Amino acid sequence: MTERIVVGAAVLDGERLLAARRSAPEELAGRWELPGGKVEPGETPEAALVRELREELGVDAEVIERVPGAWPLKSPYVLHVWTARLLPGTGEPKPLEDHDELRWLGPGELWDVDWLDQDVPAVREVAARLRS
Ligand SMILES: Nc1nc2c([nH]c(=O)n2[C@H]2C[C@H](O)[C@@H](COP(=O)(O)OP(=O)(O)OP(=O)(O)O)O2)c(=O)[nH]1
């Protein structure tokens, strides 16, 4: 089956990373992830990321760069991650859809939340870039 991309946004504010707690489906609820979602047919991953951040968090954001790596999810999905930043004046993100809590994680707090297993290597990669 053709791979389908799920985009995850590592939204950064200085050295802080935004984490989102899923409210559904049942098997993922309560675990933390990078906000994002499935890329629609004909859409670029970058456009999907901006769209998902608007839908899920009510914010306007811009993509910074791809975090190297691709992490397999439930077939046929594969997680690709980009760093992103909020546009000035857009306000604080809110858990409008798919999430019931958001947290900005500062340095030393990245591992304070229960990330989805498949997100752990992606967050590790983001953490390495935050330190460099
Ligand atoms: N958004 C997001 N999804 C993730 C991550 N890690 C992970 O396993 N997933 C899974 C959860 C879902 O099964 C799938 C993405 O689905 P989603 O529900 O966020 O996608 P979507 O907003 O496009 O919604 P829909 O089409 O299901 O309505 O990928 C992650 O870090 N971010």
Automatic annotation (TrEMBL):
Pfam families from the UniProt entry: NUDIX (PF00293)
Name of protein: 8-oxo-dGTP diphosphatase
Organism: Streptomyces osmaniensis
EC number: 3.6.1.55
Start and end residues of each Nudix hydrolase domain: 2-132
Top-level taxon in the UniProt lineage: Bacteria
KW Cell membrane (keyword) present: no
InterPro entries in UniProt: MutT-like, Nudix_hydrolase, NUDIX_hydrolase-like_dom_sf, NUDIX_hydrolase_CS, NUDIX_hydrolase_dom
Lineage of source species: Bacteria, Bacillati, Actinomycetota, Actinomycetes, Kitasatosporales
Catalytic activity, as annotated: 8-oxo-dGTP + H2O = 8-oxo-dGMP + diphosphate + H(+)
Entry's family note: Belongs to the Nudix hydrolase family.
